[in-house]
Design goal:
Elements (H helix, E strand, L loop, with lengths): L1 E6 L2 E6 L2 E5 L32 E3 L10 H4 L8 E4 L5 H8 L5 E4 L5 E4 L2 E7 L8 E7 L2 E7 L5 H10 L6 E5 L14 H26 L3 E5 L16 H4 L5 H10 L13 E3 L4 E3 L12 H21 L9 H12 L3 H7 L2 E7 L4 E6 L6 E3 L7 E6 L3 H6 L4 H7 L3 E4 L6 H9 L2 H13 L5 E6 L2 E6 L9 H4 E4 L3 E4 L4 E4 L15 E3 L2
Parallel strand pairs: 3-4, 4-5, 5-6, 10-11, 11-12, 15-18
Antiparallel strand pairs: 1-2, 1-13, 2-3, 7-8, 8-9, 9-10, 13-14, 15-16, 16-17, 18-19, 20-21, 21-25, 22-23, 23-24
């Protein structure tokens, strides 16, 4: 099996009689409203890339993995293999690009592409998170493409068991896909501290995943993105010590921890699993990550027209946006009483520019409604009015917009509300119902003993947020705090209360 990097999270797998593309992203307009761009640039691959693959596999709906521009270049009948999620968003994005042969596969179920290659997906356990690993088996070799999926140690070990015990390649990302803390109104020192903490948490997850999988070879990939719009170039500083480390930084961090079996692939570089030989694309002979500033300056000049074209498709509104805003959120408020109760706050929207205003949506019990005055809010979003019409008509998903980083957000108290994001990004009853059923079905009966500062606590084994096994990923912190390393939720062991998010109580009892 030969693996060629397509840049970011994209891979091309070549076997004797098959070519499989995985998560290719090559759009010259980047992604997420032309905020993210591939780093380094991968446009040179369009001249040589096979545009009639045997099949294409797509892991989830983020636009750096599902590229409508590229998908539109493929024959409409190209078999397109995706994991089955409660939400139809992934399937809708693919269909909108013109592909018709979409094959949804339940997780853990293998699908045979040809006699020599098969694929299966393993999704994160909570339906709140639509991320899946792609597992590809061909010619007696196995690749796990972890991309954005934060699988549990148990899931990773089960994959290894399912494929016979040997993982030839583990491809995994070192950069995050998040707007936290970048878009939050924190003092710069606090923002820097949070970014560094998030970076290290991501690196530590890589280390745990590698230990669970024990791969023969490791390909770090899936980022970072770079930011070429003059309004967003400040985000490139996150490559220094923040949430967007580059490929070289990830590999160096792993080597410092005695993990040396990494393979560095830039767009167009190839790696043959059987021979363990790397074939470098000559275009990168003079490329150096340390010369990032000059490289990005030239890159931005090449994309100026693309960014302008994107913005031109989102003109300034000519009339008040409050009536469609009100109608949209009144409909959303009627969609899931469960989510409303979990949100339980008044949310402010400061829409700047023509047609905008300061409005609020109240999710508190007995006060549900939409107001044309913001008032006092626990959460607040601020962004330009040009983006709002597409958010309201559904052509721009909220999560895609948030990943564009083209907004500001504040919250008081400073506690993350997962259900607010979930309601905005899913906005369909069946997806919300799937989350409600999952969360209500989580078993808090199975317990483990936690030792902290001389005390013993009897604690439910599985995190009340997403069901991660705290016996595997629980970290005890000073002050009687238990952190779940699955998504970094922290719980007070004495009260069970979540300290940095809003979710169910952790069942916890001191027993000495």
């Amino acid at each position: 099996m030969k693996i060629t990097s397509l840049g970011h999270a994209g891979l091309q797998l070549e076997l004797k009689s098959a070519k499989l593309l995985v998560d290719p992203w090559l759009s010259p307009e980047g992604a997420f409203l032309s905020s993210w761009f591939q780093y380094p640039d991968n446009q040179h691959l369009m001249a040589s890339l096979a545009l009639q693959p045997t099949a294409i596999a797509l892991s989830h709906e983020h636009l750096d993995h599902v590229d409508p521009w590229f998908l539109a270049q493929l024959p409409p009948e190209t078999p397109t293999i995706i994991p089955r999620y409660p939400s139809p968003v992934l399937k809708q994005k693919i269909a909108a690009a013109g592909l018709k042969n979409i094959i949804e596969v339940p997780q853990w179920q293998s699908i045979q592409i040809t006699e020599e290659i098969s694929v299966f997906f393993v999704s994160e356990e909570s339906p709140m998170n639509h991320d899946s690993a792609v597992v590809i088996v061909g010619e007696g070799q196995t690749l796990i493409n972890l991309n954005d999926a934060r699988l549990s140690v148990a899931q990773l070990r089960n994959i290894r068991t399912k494929v016979g015990g040997v993982i030839d390649v583990l491809a995994l990302q070192g950069a995050g896909a998040s707007w936290y803390p970048i878009c939050y109104e924190y003092p710069e020192s606090r923002k820097k501290e949070l970014s560094q903490r998030k970076r290290i948490a991501k690196f530590n997850y890589l280390k745990r995943a590698i230990a669970a999988v024990e791969p023969v070879n490791i390909i770090p990939f899936a980022g970072p993105p770079c930011f070429l719009d003059a309004e967003l170039t400040w985000v490139n500083a996150e490559m220094e010590e923040g949430i967007f480390p580059d490929l070289e930084q990830v590999i160096n961090w792993l080597k410092e921890r005695e993990i040396h079996n990494t393979v560095s692939l830039l767009p167009g570089d190839a790696f043959d699993i059987a021979s363990k030989q790397k074939q470098a694309d000559p275009i990168w002979s003079d490329f150096c990550f340390s010369q990032r500033a000059s490289y990005l300056k030239d890159y931005a000049a090449r994309r100026t027209a693309n960014i302008a074209a994107l913005k031109a498709r989102y003109p300034q509104p000519t009339e008040s946006l409050y009536p469609p805003f009100r109608d949209y959120f009144q409909n959303l408020l009627a969609m899931s009483p469960y989510f409303n109760s979990k949100i339980g706050m008044r949310i402010g929207f400061e829409i700047t520019g023509p047609g905008g205003g300061k409005w609020a949506v109240d999710f508190r019990s007995g006060k549900e409604g939409v107001d044309d005055e913001m008032g006092e809010c626990s959460y607040g979003y601020r962004f330009a009015s040009r983006w709002l019409p597409s958010l309201l008509d559904g052509s721009l998903p909220w999560e895609d917009f948030f990943l564009s980083l083209r907004f500001e957000v504040w919250r008081n108290p400073d506690i993350y509300n997962d259900h607010l994001l979930g309601l905005l990004k899913f906005a369909c009853p069946q997806s919300l119902q799937a989350v409600e059923e999952y969360e209500n079905a989580m078993d808090s009966q199975e317990q483990i003993t936690i030792h902290c500062e001389g005390d013993n606590y009897l604690v439910q084994r599985h995190c009340p947020h997403a069901g991660f096994d705290l016996q595997e990923v629980g970290e005890v912190l000073p002050g009687g705090i238990l952190r779940c390393l699955g998504h970094h939720y922290e719980f007070d062991l004495n009260t069970g209360k979540c300290l940095n998010g809003k979710c169910n109580l952790l069942s916890s009892k001191r027993i000495n």
